[in-house]
Records
---
Amino acid sequence: MSSLRFSYGTMGSGKSTLALQIHHNLAATGSGFLCSMHDRAGAHVSSALGVSAPAVEVNPMVNFVDLAANHLAAHGALDYMVCDEAQFYTDLQIEQLARVVDEMSADVYTFGLLTDFRGKLFPGSARLMELANERIELQVQARCWCNEPATHNARLADGVQIYDGDVVLIDDGQIAEVTYELRCRRHWISGEAGPVVDQLRVAG
Ligand SMILES: [Zn+2]
């Protein structure tokens, strides 16, 4: 039975690294392709560890059923798709991925963040939670500064945590320096940055 899998985790949980590894392994014996959206390297999947591979760049207009059918026509087979940054996909696109699994018997491996900096489910991740055959939480022991397991992504503007704003930020040079940090829920809610960051800020 083919399957729609959703592997989710915080930033730094190795999602892209795992996506690249699965693509590499499956490509050895099967036919399929990588997709991504808003990756740090453009039409690639790139991991924080420095590995990258070419990928189909997804935008909201991409139809995954068409994409899968095109691959099948060009290569004579479609065994799998690996989809990174799936939190950004639309509801319709997640439903298309489910159809690729059900109608074309391909395995679809999706990877993404579960919640945004506001602590809300990303639309694509919510739909995957509803439709996926398997939901897998990635565990790589990411920690908050207090050493509790990190479960939330905090957005910081000039070092201060913020809770409002667009989910996808386009850097137009007009905004404060935006960074992200992993926090436990307690410190994501309180906004406390921890002693090390405070010292650095004083030193800087
Ligand atoms: Zn904490």
---
Amino acid sequence: MSYAIETIGLSKRVTDATGELTILDDINFTVPAGATLAIVGASGSGKSTLLGLLAGLDTPSAGTVKLNGTDIFALDEDGRAGLRKRTLGFVFQSFQLLPHLTALENVMLPLELRGGSDASNAGVRAEAMLGRVGLASRLKHYPKYLSGGEQQRVALARAFVCEPPLLFADEPTGSLDAATGEAVIKLMFELNQERGSTLVLVTHDPSIAALCGRTITITAGRLV
Ligand SMILES: Nc1ncnc2c1ncn2[C@@H]1O[C@H](COP(=O)(O)OP(=O)(O)O)[C@@H](O)[C@H]1O
Ligand SMILES: [Mg+2]
């Protein structure tokens, strides 16, 4: 059987001035398609590094990640980028919106990159998705004229607009007030259920983790 996500002996080590640092050590887990997974752990435990590896945005020192049965580190950089484009939405801890594009243009971008009918309908679909996150009146705004919560919702709309089977979000409520955070989480779970997508959330909020089907805890780079 192939899982939506499978990690096999996944490890990340880096060398800096003080010597070799093990960030992740022999991480093994599987996530079935359509499941929801929370990754929790103290600040600095390796959660963001793990999520980046799951998305193939970073390369492991040992081990690998399979997404829907495909060993992503057997692919080259272009192969991984292509796989991300087709199957993955990623919400960065720091949003990573493009500052010179409006909210609408930021959300249109992944559709345009896909080409074909996705690209020709990009405007309509991006506008609908921004409406869905409550930003119908912010389409023409540039990121710097949006609040943190609004930027977070644009980032979410951008990650979801292609309806990817995999959605990864790194502390999606980290910079939001409680009410906005709750709305963002509700939306992510709604979209997960509507579309049967697999949702992986990094969070340090136990009440958010409790909403997920399963929680894994990282402590100093190890799965506990
Ligand atoms: N490229 C890197 N070089 C050196 N240290 C790193 C690098 N990336 C992450 N780290 C360190 O690895 C640890 C885990 O980081 P991170 O995955 O961002 O943790 P978390 O998201 O759980 O807060 C931290 O101590 C961080 O400083
Ligand atoms: Mg982090």
---
Amino acid sequence: MQILLADHAGFCFGVRRALEMAEEATRSHERLYALGPLIHNRQVVERLGRQGLVVCEDLEALPAGAVAMIRAHGAGPAVYDLASERGVTLLDATCPFVARVHRKAAQFVRHGYQVLVLGDPNHPEAQGIVAHTGGKALIVEDPVDLENVHLRRRVAVVCQTTQTLESLRVLVGAVLPHVQELIVANTICDATVNRQEASVVLARRVDVVIVIGGYHSANTRRLAEVCAAAGTPAHHIETADELQEEWLTGVAKVGVTAGASTPAEAIEAVIERLREMGSAESG
Ligand code: SF4
């Protein structure tokens, strides 16, 4: 069985940057807090926990003088205000590509546009984008969400950085007939585009794709979707021990891709396990 790895797989720029900041800060601070899991990867979060990084969902629970990290997903202005009120020092790992979406969305609101955010309403990145518009933007996951929304004459669309171009096209197509002016800022980040494109190329060359990444990782879930949309069965796993023999029955070529928060060790472990399973099958 041949194993092919996607050209772009694993840590993106924003995740790597956040991890480097965390690792450096845990060396100089006895205790460091992260406002939510630093990245959507359980194994990495557990490792950082052993180095002194404590996940905390509620800034109000932190003592004055604490140091807390904002994740690559970013946070709304209220978090910065509350930190300063409570004497908490923030270490800001907001990915610059996410910060760019914050600025765009806020700018569109200032210019009088109704702002739609293509994204997952339960995802902290999409919620952070809305917070930077003073709560004025609306998160849309699917055009169906617009059924009961009164669209104004001037609308602007931005995206959560991990969306697919196809979802953006669908939303734009649904909004355009109902408005006089539509501005679209394609804020899907390059890392997402590269991973999705490389995964589709891979999916077309193999019989099955293994997509590695946290189950809460939006960009990993999108990779599984684009592979399946390319017509190739795709299985999303977090770790090598979740691989199942039956996925490989009769498979000559297996593809491996990984989300932006998947460490190289997790990818290597899956490839190693696939090699073992492949040789067991042919033996
Ligand atoms: S997926 Fe894109 S926006 Fe998100 S952290 Fe990575 S580089 Fe930044």
---
Amino acid sequence: MKLSRSEKQYFTDCSLELLKSEIVQRMGTFIQHANVSCLEHSISVAYYSYWLCRKLNLNVDCRSIIRGALLHDFFLYDWHVTKNPKGLHGFKHPLTALENAEEHFSLNDCEKEIIVRHMWPLTLTPPKCREALIVSLSDKFCSIIEILRIYPALISR
Ligand SMILES: [Fe+2]
Ligand SMILES: [Fe+2]
């Protein structure tokens, strides 16, 4: 699951605006699964989504995939202790993440779709673009390896 040097550089270039932002770094203070922070989880989802696109040589918008994935869980609270005012966390946090992301960053339609559809099929409306489907699949993969704590063994960057 390695990226080439130029792919790593592309990943860094696409991530930079978001990762240097203080508000995105705040995701590092919230646990997502097991001992993995929300920021680490989001970086993993972005990494694996992009890796999958390169591996399968998919003709998709990789920049939006990386940026959308980095913001897909940008809800900014500890979901283990804080309730989402809109309803159950599992169903509503994509909307909260989208609201936060739109407040702080300029997003394209693909990035918005990635964030708001990433919990499909739990949230019933399916992703309209391949980019959102890829991030949704990577999110499930990363969540499982984090919950099972096999995360460090698989990461090879
Ligand atoms: Fe999520
Ligand atoms: Fe996630």
